[in-house]
Amino acid sequence: MGKPHVNLVFIGHVDHGKSTLVGRLLFERGLISESVIKKFEEMGDKGKTFKFAWVMDRLEEERERGVTIEISYGKLETPKNEITIIDAPGHRDFVKNMITGASQADAAVLVVAADDGIMPQTREHAALAFTLGVGQVAVVINKMDLVNFEQEVYERLKHEVVALLSGIGYREAEKLLYLPVSAFHGDNVTKPSDRMLWYRGPTAFEALETFREPEKPIDKPLRIPVQDVFSITGVGTVPIGRVETGVLKAGDAVIFEPAGKSGEVKSIEMHHEAIPQAVPGDNIGFNVRGLSKADIKRGDVAGHPDKPPSVTREFTAKIIVLTIPTQLAPGFTPLFHCHAANVPGRVEQILQKIDPRTGAVTEENPPYLKKGEAAVMRVALHQPMVIERVAEIPQLSRFAVRHAGQTVAAGMCVDLVPAE
Fold it and tell me: Which residue has the higher pLDDT, 51 or 27?
């Protein structure tokens, strides 16, 4: 069967060095040739600064702006694991893409720059990772070169990040790995650094060995959220997505919801190789006969016709408020981001306020919610969307609530009214 497979997302504030860390890892493991890095260096001062970051940032616009917009994938093998790296954007404009990245991840590396410390997106990304069910986290305190590799700075930041992660809900946050690194110079990325002799722990590369492949929910109904759809000449319609639950085999009949369109799977591809079947965790493209590119779109979910994905326009959710200008009250109409879908909806009613740590009810029918508060609420969507109950298919129950360019809350669906 090969090695355990882990989907790993790199998260953290913009410019804290996520892409540089990923690029440096791939370069030092021999997956990127010296000539590619040299070519970037020859592109002027910007190339010298961003040479490792550009390994993942393939889009021209990302080169221009020096930020990561789309999600990119890279493959890395460690002695124990096979890792698909998802490099998620840190810039606040692109958080919705980060949500897509984190919702596909089994583990996360949270990158915090030693000179900046905890910034708004550090907090936002960490809270999203927790809500989206990413339980395994390692923390890289990057840019140690900018603070003269001082142990005091590392210890202080480690202490602050432990407090942040504990507050969000990560239990035993102090037991996670905290790694001092200079990704740009390669200190403690794949080799221990002689400039941080005070640090005795693993390198960033060794830390990847601690991540475990999650149990594959192959006995649950098939669910594949569609990330993108291509029309490929000579092949046909090819949706791209990650299998969340169930098993997809070539020859299967599939239905896409909420589009309500059906077809037959002719072939399945992963990393440009044809495979007979796909299981949870596989990022695949699958060719569907009987459908055109116009029939399906990003945000649809594929399943088998006998157990189709749940479509709803009204659901009940448990949420936690991450940030809000004043307060969150009934009538609030944000965007609900679930897997690859984002649909506007309205908060109809706040049923109960709950203690975020214990889940105990603290107030019935509160008039509004403030930052840091958790609650059970009823949501009405403006159009149908696929979401599942957390007790049945947790992989598709989690969502983020965004408004005016920021993530105001995150939650999970506890019950739903099936759409007509």
Answer: 27
